[in-house]
Amino acid sequence: MKKILLVAIALFLGASTSAQDKYFTKNGTITFDATTSTSPEKVAAVNKSVTCVLDGKTGNAQFSVLMKGFEFEQALMREHFHENYLESEKFPKALFKGQIINPSQINYSKNGIYDVAVKGQLTMHGQTKDVETNGKVSVNDGKISIAAKFAVLLSDYGIEIPRLVSDKVAKSASIKVDCSLQVLGN
Amino acid sequence: MKYKIILLASALIVIAAGAYFYVNRKTQSLTDSNADFKISAVKFLEEYSSDQVLSDKKYLGKVIQVEGNLKEIERDDKGSLTFVLGDLTSMSSVRCSIDTTVVIDESAYPVGTAVSLKGECTGFNADDLGLGADIVLNRSVIIHNKN
Question: What is the pTM of this model?
Answer without folding.
Answer: 0.87
